[in-house]
Write a structure and sequence with these properties.
By secondary structure, this protein is of the alpha+beta class. Helices cover 28% and strands 22% of the residues. It has three helices and 19 strands. The strands form six sheets. It has a five-stranded antiparallel sheet with strand order 7-6-5-8-11, with no helix packed on it. Strands 14, 15, 16, 17 and 18 form a five-stranded antiparallel sheet that branches. The protein is elongated, with a radius of gyration of 35 Å.
Length: 300
């Protein structure tokens, strides 16, 4: 009899424990579900934050691309046109430098309304600093001045005073350039040098080697110095001049004597900066092109 009572009591205790364990398991399961929901919520919020950050990064990249496009188009004389329904605008030459400044919104650049034509004649530009553009106008805007890097150099096989250089101007292939600098600059100082190059001269043979450009130098009767581009200049950088937006000819016509017309006004100033009629030759956002020491001399 006592054995049966003991068995019944033990069975009852086991049942109570099982019920308690089931309650604990259900409670634990509920806690795990709650934590899982919290983790899901946290992960979703974290994912949203990452997407927002990625979106801001992409917006910044798009803005930089728009600025770069506007800069290049403006430097090459391309007018800027807005979406339909808005005022036609262009960017003044004075505002081009603003495109290089960090955190500048394209839409914050002051717009200059395009002048309306009356009886087929356009009004004169309001910006007095900018020189009017005509097809027959000959000035520095017609010169394709760029930055290049000398990647190979040797003496001309048939001329003691000439170097033959290969210059990377940011194009598919380096240009062959013949320079009469042997008596002025040691060959070791020319190797791997960053230079300013006039790229739209008509190719011409010099003692049997075709020269496709010209290395620009400051020149006096007693001394010649290769011009020095600003720090950070790289092959292919365009050289511009304040007041003369770039409109280079594909190739200079020797009969028009465009470079010969510009040459007397290409000089270094008192700070050794290369200028055209007193306006500095610069790479936007990087600085002016300078001579090492020569002041007030011709650039050619």
């Amino acid at each position: 009899m006592s054995i049966r009572i003991f068995v019944r009591k033990m069975s009852k205790n086991v049942a109570i424990k099982l019920v308690n364990n089931a309650d604990k398991a259900e409670k634990r399961l509920s806690e795990l579900k709650s934590k899982l929901e919290q983790v899901k919520k946290y992960k979703v919020e974290e994912g949203i934050k990452e997407l927002i950050q990625e979106n801001e990064f992409l917006k910044k990249k798009v803005q930089e691309a728009k600025i770069e496009l506007m800069k290049l188009e403006t430097l090459n004389g391309k007018k800027q046109y807005p979406l339909p329904g808005k005022t036609v605008v262009t960017i003044s030459n004075a505002d081009v430098s603003k495109l290089e400044q960090p955190n500048v919104d394209v839409d914050q650049i002051p717009a200059v309304k395009t002048e309306k034509k009356e009886k087929g004649v356009a009004k004169k530009p309001k910006d007095k600093a900018a020189v009017p553009v005509t097809n027959d106008l000959i000035d520095v805007r017609k010169l394709d001045l760029r930055i290049g890097k000398i990647v190979d150099i040797d003496k001309h096989p048939d001329a003691d005073t000439l170097y033959v250089e290969k210059i990377d101007c940011g194009e598919d292939n380096p240009r062959t350039v013949v320079s009469g600098l042997v008596n002025h600059v040691p060959i070791d100082e020319m190797k791997d040098r960053i230079v300013m190059v006039l790229c739209n001269l008509k190719p011409v043979k010099m003692r049997g080697v075709t020269s496709e450009a010209m290395v620009m130098c400051a020149s006096s009767p007693d001394k010649v110095e290769v011009l020095i581009p600003p720090n950070g200049a790289i092959p292919g950088d365009l050289v511009t001049c304040e007041g003369y937006p770039r409109e280079p000819e594909p190739q200079l016509n020797p009969k028009k004597k465009i470079f010969e017309t510009c040459a007397p006004d290409l000089k270094t100033n008192d700070d050794c900066v290369a200028c055209y009629k007193g306006s500095a030759l610069v790479i936007l956002g990087k600085g002016p092109v300078k001579a090492p020491t020569l002041k007030g001399v011709n650039v050619k």
